[in-house]
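User: Here's a chain of 309 residues. Predict its fold as tokens.
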Amino acid sequence: MPTKRPTPGTRSARGAEAARGLGLILLLAAAPAPARAQADTATWNAVGRVLKSPPAPAAGYVRYNFPRKDIALTVGDVSVAPALALGAWAGFAGSADSAVTMGDLVLLAAELPTVLRELNEAGLGVTAIHNHLAGETPEITYVHFHGEGPALRLAQAVDRVLTKTAAPRPVEAAAPQPVTIDTATVFRTLGLRGRASGAVAQLGPVLVPGAVTMHGRTLVPAMAYGTPINLQLVKPDRMVAAGDFAVVGERVAPLIAALAAHGITAVAMHSHLIGESPRIYYIHFWGDGKPDEVLAGLRAALDSVNSQR
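Assistant: Prediction complete.
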């Protein structure tokens, strides 16, 4: 979705440095392949400096994470790990002079009005505002955004928005934590590979076949319509799960039925994009129970989608 450029402000030292960096990147972008690779690295490193978060290469895009470690979130008697459901982020794809950004902002109620005003002022489009959980304390609102333009200008726009939240920055690289969740069983049962840290395992399959476009531009699957499945081991005989399944319309009913049949609650269903083709539906879920039962339910949900692909 095309969006206007962020409103220019007073040129600060940081802005001047960013402009010089962008000029260098644009020169490198016209060079042979090795130089273009260096330009890409320079671009995403420069974006990371603006956002005060290290770049994390993902499938087809570069991700910058802003976990809301400042929020002590509970659902019932469960203390929710930030990696389970508080993972604010911004993804970037494309090039220095023609980039696209998408992401999620994780907001407290008091932050929402100011953030929405700043998104508008910064020239970023809002594509969704909604819940991802049910019954959480404090109540969290998730805002999805989208923008197109030069990479550093987009980064500066996202940075302006993030300053209106209490999201901790700069984002320090997380120290490795001993993995306490049984990843072998998780990955084997779900038939997927992922990553884990501490008591949380994360997986991210793409369940929509073929290309998805929005306003004539082909979207990066993992950035725009991946399916995050996050699991947290609460204690040896209890696991919670959260995330959202991104699927096309005909898979919604079988998916919700599979979740319900295994005691996993669909807590929300809505869009994250505007004007995409085909239309994608996002079904957020919450599971809480014995690990084998939660995993069986998630596997049944995956099978309900994959059986028709």
